Amino acid sequence: MNKKFILAIPISLVFISILTLFSSLSKSNVKNNNPNVILIMVDDLRPEINCYNKTIIKSPNIDNLASDSYLYENAVCNYPVCGASRASMLTGLRPNKNRFKTFKSRIDVDAPSVETIGSWFKNNGYYTLSFGKISHHKNDSPKSWSEPAWRAEKKWRDYQTDENIKLANQNNGVGNAFEIGLNLRDNYADQKMVDRIMKDLVNFKKSNKPFLLSVGFLKPHLPFNAPLKYWDLYEKKDIQLAKNRFQPENTPKIAMHHYAELRKYLNIPNDKSVEIPDSIQLKLIHGYYACISFVDDQIGRLVSKLKELDLYNDAIIVFVGDHGWQLGEHNLWAKHCNFQTSLKVPLLIKYPNQTETKKIKSVVELVDIFPTLCDISNLDYPKHLQGKSLTSVNKKDNSNTIGFSTYKKGTTITTSNYSYTKWQNDNNELIGQMLFDLKRDKDENISIAIDSTYKQLINSFSISIDSINEVSL
């Protein structure tokens, strides 16, 4: 057992807090060099793209962006559901028992007095804009934006085929879980959003203010709707079922769920005791891939326009998923759990005039994005931030960093070597735990929490979780 590693976990929490504090205090006046910022958020995207070594995926435009960016190989969300994750990221505050607990979370309800990325940049001279799904609710925290937030979709499931539109009209907005887009009534919302942004970019360039442009893609969120040509990018032989369709050994019942989000759709068995047929599982995986390629194409259009207007090189560009997604692993679908499939996200950050990829192995969190953007944009930090700036992580990439994620009663600590989760009841009593060795068992198939060899490590992780939960209150 590596005793140095065990002792470093709690100490690193203190170090990170001190580093964040002194970084904040050491900044003085806002400098004149404030680059444009483009924040691209993709809904339900796990690191299932080519630049993360997922070779089946067709994502050339995201891969090209990655070639100019810092690529964070071990980024985790702080809460694996969209509303809470986005609210946490946009405020730089960790979720806790009083805020950011559900998909319906609102910043202006849970943390109304806190500055967001948008409002902080606006207060510091930026023109700030929100297009598509940035906050879960379009009208959340309106103080963040210089103009009202804009979305293209009239109905968020965004069906465009006659079959699904008819089904949705008959079933309270719900149709099938995927749509092979042929003979569409209209373009999908993500394409219409990029159409609108490409027109507005001309005016943004003329402005005498730097801008922060937030771009939120709906896909690959359910339902998996994409034009036929993106489905046709993948052959049936390339679509494989998950290899670990079972509950991991030695894990508690509370670790699992019955993917209620997916079961709402009409072509999915709604009885939680009924398994989804393999043929439907393959179609869902195919649809997820098609949606990624569709979004990739839209990002390519956006980046091409930025380059045409000479706005790309000097800009900061962040590309991030709000949380992961299960595609049948552990016999789970959707998010809503404490496995790495729900917690890991893609994160790319392109600095101004960056021209090469730099891969970072350190574990980082979505709450780190706010202070990082402040650093690169030469802005002071607001006092409430609970993350760390990744500018320091980039310089000293190491294996001793940690990330924290929460889902309901469970909190997970992720390190380069392990993931540990403990669940507690309302009296803070332990009701379940699991530990995975990510070097030997990257797919988290066998929990080793019952092995007494790891008792000291588990105790250290448990103390760190208690510490971070206290700090985040």
Helix content: 25-40%
Number of folding domains? 1
**Mind telling me the C-alpha Rg?**
22 Å
Any idea of the CATH class? Alpha Beta
Biggest sheet, in brief? 8 strands, mixed
Q: How many H/I helical runs? A: 14
The 3D shape can be described as globular
Number of strands: 16
Structural class: alpha/beta
Write the CATH homologous superfamily.
Alkaline Phosphatase, subunit A
Distance between the termini: 33 Å
Average per-residue pLDDT, rounded, comes to 92
> What's the helix-strand series?
HEHEHHHEHEHEEHHHEEEHEEEHHEEEEH
Strand proportion, as a percent range, falls in 15-25%
As residue ranges, the low-confidence spans are 1-32
Brief synopsis:
This protein has 14 helices and 16 strands. The protein is α/β, with parallel strands linked by helices.
Question: What does this molecule look like?
Answer:
32% of the residues lie in helices and 18% in strands. It starts with a helix and ends with a helix. The strands form four sheets. Strands 1, 2, 3, 5, 7, 10, 11 and 12 form an eight-stranded mixed β-sheet that branches. Helix 1 packs parallel to helix 14 (455-471). The protein is built from 14 helices and 16 strands. The model is unreliable at 1-32 (pLDDT under 50). The chain has 473 residues and is of the alpha/beta class. It has a single domain (36-396), classed as Alkaline Phosphatase, subunit A, CATH 3.40.720.10. The longest helix has 31 residues, at 278-308. It has helices spanning 3-26, 60-66, 82-91, 107-110, 117-123, 162-170, 189-206, 228-231, 260-263, 278-308, 340-343, 369-376, 390-395, 455-471; strands spanning 37-42, 70-76, 127-132, 178-181, 211-217, 224-227, 316-321, 326-327, 333-334, 344-345, 347-350, 358-365, 403-407, 410-414, 418-424, 430-437.
